[in-house]
Amino acid sequence: MNRVGILANTKKPIIQKVLPEFLLSLKDRPNSYQVPAYFQSIFTHIPPYLKILSEEDLLNTSDLIISLGGDGTILRTARLIGRREIPILGVNLGGLGFLTASSVEGTTTHVAEFFEGKLKVEKRSVLKVEIDGDSGVYYLLNDLVVDKAGFSRLIKISTTVNQHLLNSYLADGILIATPTGSTAYSLANGGPIVAPLTNAFIINPICPHTLSNRPIVVPDDAQISLTIESEINQFNVFGDGEKIGTYQAGITVNLRKASYGVHMVQIPEQEFFTILREKLGWGEDFRNKSVSP
C-alpha cells in the first residue's frame, strides 16, 4: 500500500480549521496516511485510521508528502526531505502560492492521480552553500541573500564565477536564486522570471550603486563565490527567507548546484505559465474595470 505523509504549517490560524476536516476526509481512502506525532499536541483528536510517527520516521517511510500551507511551508518541507527526494504535493493555504499546486478540496484526487502515474513530477535545482569558517552546509530551494546587517552604507561584494571575477558590487546586498526562486525575492528586486527546469542560477545585486549593474543569469554548473567587505566588519546571510547567521567581513560564501533536487508534483491546470498569467494578471484588460474611489 502506498504511504502518504502529511506535513503542515501549524502556525497558520486557518490550519486549525482546515487540517482536522482534511484528516477526517481521509477515512476509507485507498492509501495509508501518516502524520507526525506533534499533531497530537495541537489537535484534540487524530482519527484512528491515521498512522502516527515521529517526523523522522514519517520522512523515511513516505512515498509522497502532502505539504499544507504556503510557499514557505514547501521550503521547510524541502529542507526536511533533503536527499530523500520524496515527491511533494503542495496544498495552497497561503497567498500567491507559486510552489503549491493543489487545493484542499482537490488533494485526495491528485494523490490518486499521482499514484496512477497521471501527474508530472519536476526535479527542481537546489543551491549548496558553504561559508568559510562555518562547518555547516546549507541547501536552498529558492535563494541565498547577503545583506549589510542593518548598516546604512553600502557593502562591497566581490563576485566570482568559476574563479573569474564578475564584478565587485557596491550594493545593499546580493542574492543568488534558483529558477524556482526567480519568482520570490529576486522578482521583487527586478530580476528575471526563469522557467523552473532551466539549468541556470540568477546573480542579482540588491540596490546597486551603479545602474549598469544588472541581474545576470549563469549556467547552474558554475561555482559562485562572494567575498564581502563592510565598514562595520560584518554581514548577514539568509537562506530561503530564514537567517543563517552573521559573519565577519572578509569571509567568502561559496555556492554551487547540489547533487540532488527537490521533486515537485505538478497539476495540469497549475502549469507554470498558467500560474504566471493568473498570479501576475498577465493578459488582462484593465481598461474597462471599475476603480474604487
Q: What structural category do the secondary elements indicate?
A: alpha+beta
SSE ordering: EHEEHEHEHEEEEEEEHEEEEEEEH
Architecture of the largest domain in CATH?
Answer: 3-Layer(aba) Sandwich
Biggest sheet, strands in spatial order? 8-7-18-15-10-11
CATH class of the largest domain: Alpha Beta
Distance between the termini: 57 Å
Number of strands: 19
What is the residue-averaged pLDDT? 93
Q: Please state the CA-atom Rg, rounded to the nearest Å.
A: 21 Å
Describe the structure in your own words:
By secondary structure, the protein is of the alpha+beta class. The chain folds into 2 domains: 3-124 and 261-280, 3-Layer(aba) Sandwich (Rossmann fold), CATH 3.40.50.10330; 127-257, Probable inorganic polyphosphate/atp-NAD kinase, domain 2 (Tumour Suppressor Smad4, Sandwich), CATH 2.60.200. The protein is built from 6 helices and 19 strands. The protein has a 6-stranded antiparallel β-sheet with strand order 8-7-18-15-10-11, with no helix packed on it. Strands 14-13-12-9-16-17 form a 6-stranded antiparallel β-sheet, with no helix packed on it. Strands 3-2-1-4-5 form a 5-stranded parallel β-sheet, sandwiched between helices. A hairpin with a 5-residue loop joins β7 and β8. The radius of gyration is 21 Å and the shape is globular. The N and C termini lie far apart (57 Å).
